Amino acid sequence: MDKVVASAREAVADVGDGATLAVGGFGLCGVPVALIDALLEQGTSRLTTVSNNCGVDDQALGVLLYAGRIRRTISSFVGGNKELARLYLSGELEVELTPQGTLAERLRAGGCGIPAFYTPTGVGTMVADGGIPVRYDAEGNVVETSAPKETRVFDGQEYVLETALTADFALVRAAVGDRHGNLVFHESARNFNPLAGMAGRVTIAEVERLVEPGEITPEDVHLPGVFVDRVVVVGPEGKKIEKRTTRPRSSAAPLAAAGEEATTEDSSTGESSTGESSTEEPAR
Question: Compositional bias (Low complexity) spans (predicted)?
Fold first, then answer.
């Protein structure tokens, strides 16, 4: 039952060329960066990735993209990656665009053994009617498009049939995991990670902290160990911020702006003391 392996390199050693990967994360949040870096070092190529987005420029899955290791991606958002756009439009990368909620449900369905499902999302658009460019040639001509999908009416509303997604391997990142593979994701890292983990035939989890079986209460488990095959401890390092946004500092109080000293009273002695007032805001 002990699923812990010694290193990320060992965890992905059998991921071969041409494999399909379901990868957790949203932007740079909850991305299994250590496992991705191990794949890059290993030299695995011709990969198909299933993820919300294919990384950002030179980060997350972007490192594999820049190295030319990905041949096809199934994603819902690709707008934050200039290299992906270049590869796609030059015929070096196939892209299957899928609505975000549909992508999530396709992964969940794959993990639950449901072959397909109907959804109203995409009805009346190229998602259902087909024609979305999947592959271009080197001259920028469309050589492959998405196929039309089956539609059906239920209770007067039209729905489109979407098929489930499974993968040879799933790569996920969790805040906490135990030796049996039970995982807990931190806040918004609980986005595509549980769904990707369910859809993989072999699921590999990198965890920031390892605990012993029983330390995670059953009701706190986000992805049960039955879905997880390997666990590797990577610590909190490697996480990055996709877009750092800070707000302007608020206007300082007139007293502080004038450079005057602020007076405070010690409630225990009743004595007054002076000191420079600070306009620095606490870290958030």
Answer: 250-277
Q: Is the distance from CB of 19 to CB of 47 less than 8 angstroms?
A: yes
Cα angle 80, 85, 90; round to 5: 170
Burial 197-220 (b: 16+ CB within 10 A, else e): bbbbebbbbbbbebeeeeebeeee
Write the pLDDT tens digit of every residue in 155-194: 999 999 999 999 999 999 999 999 999 999 999 899 899 9
Measured at the alpha carbon of residue 256, what is the angle toward residues 254 and 258, in degrees to the nearest 5? 70
3-state class (DSSP) for residue 280? coil
Convert the pLDDT of each residue in 133-143 to its tens digit: 999 999 999 99
Could you say which DSSP state residue 91 is in? T
Residues 6+ positions from 134 with CB-CB distance below 8 Å? 94, 95, 96, 144, 145, 146
Q: Which residues, including other chains, have CB under 8 Å from residue 260's CB and lie 6 or more apart?
A: 277
Instruction: Tell me the CA distances in angstroms from 276 to 24, 97, 161, 279, one per residue in order.
Output: 48, 57, 67, 10
225 C-beta neighbours (distance < 10 Å), count: 21
Distances (CA, A) of 142 to 9, 108, 131, 194: 38, 31, 10, 35
The dihedral over CA atoms of 201, 238, 102, 134, expressed in degrees to the nearest 10, equals -90
Reported for 61-66, long-range contacts at CB under 8 A and 24+ positions apart, including other chains, are 61/23, 61/31, 61/36, 63/36, 63/37, 64/36, 64/39, 64/40, 65/93
Q: What is the pTM of this model?
A: 0.83
Residue 93 structure tokens: 């990368």
Q: Say how far apart CA 130 and CA 151 lie, in whole Å.
A: 12
